[in-house]
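Holo prediction. Input below; ligand is 6-O-phosphono-alpha-D-glucopyranose.
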Amino acid sequence: AAAEKGGWSSFMAKEVSEEPDAVANTLRGRIRDGQVVIPELDGLDELFAGISRIIVIACGTAAYAGQVGKYAIEQWTRIPVDVELAHEFRYRDPVIGPDTLVVSISQSGETMDTLMAVKYARERGAKTLSICNTQGATIPRESDAIVYTHAGPEVAVASTKAFVAQITALYLMGLHIGRIRGSVAAADAAEHVRELEAIPGKIAQILEREQPRIEQFASWMADTRSVLFLGRHVGYPIALEGALKLKELAYIHAEGFAAGELKHGPIALIEPGQPVFVIVPSPRKSAEMHKKVISSIEEIRARGARVIAIAEEGDAAVLPKADEVLRIPLADPFFEPLLAVVPLHIFAMGLATAKGLDVDQPRNLAKSVTVE
Ligand code: G6P
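Structure of the complex:
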């Protein structure tokens, strides 16, 4: 097993280090002359032209990838997108039919809850597309179309590199459908493609520049009993993912909230010393949201919260507001989640390691849950 880890202390450490490759390999072969063309989807133009609704179904981390993807896919395709937990989906008689595209996301391709939801959607006449990391798995075999993520085998139980690959695949799918439907201008699509192609290098920068600091900082927090995560827009599902990772790996109570929801309840949780991670939108690209998130930070800090901000390089406004600032390179808002999640994966792994826990095999969890 030591050899398989290739010198890393755990599979998870190895897999987090492979996040840049997971994105790069998922993009490979799917960009032609600056436009997204997914060869596996050849011949399905009519299917994509005929849909009026997209429902993304998944469980766990894959469902958060779906929530991230929703913003961009809706924007680029102008098709309404809903994201649902697979195990909730089929127990409520959802309104679906031949004009519905049900997109399932699963690293393993074997999650029973997701598989049953896909079968259910098919029986109801919906079109199905599987985003999957495992060649030939059951869920892709049960689907009309497949877009594989190429994150490589993921061994650690909690998903990391597959998550960034899933978001990448959703973006590719959104741009592919947008091109077919003419809902995204070629020049805009080309710009998005350039942004996507720059992401692996930017993730590598975070790993190189921030990982040691985040790990040290996580080890200081080994006794923490609760951590909150706040995000807005695409940062919201990243807050949920940050909280999930911390629960899974470090067994710490953690919750993610939409920053705008703070005043409607969660702010009551804030007491002196409470650590809160805040994903800060870009002041250049999302000035209005940036201002709102900064004011959320002010509100919780005034109540004694310890704020750890994840903010883009050069965001000077955040510095005096936060106790710690973790920097991510500049990116367009849709792509920022692919960067903002990296410090959160490192943090959860670092904290669990500091507690002496097995990050590859957390208690009570299975890599692939093949029962309902
Ligand atoms: C399990 C794993 C999670 C994963 C979820 C979905 O619960 O512990 O890390 O996110 O299943 O798995 P899938 O293979 O469908 O992506």
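The CA atoms of residues 262 and 347 lie 23 Å apart. That is the main takeaway for now.
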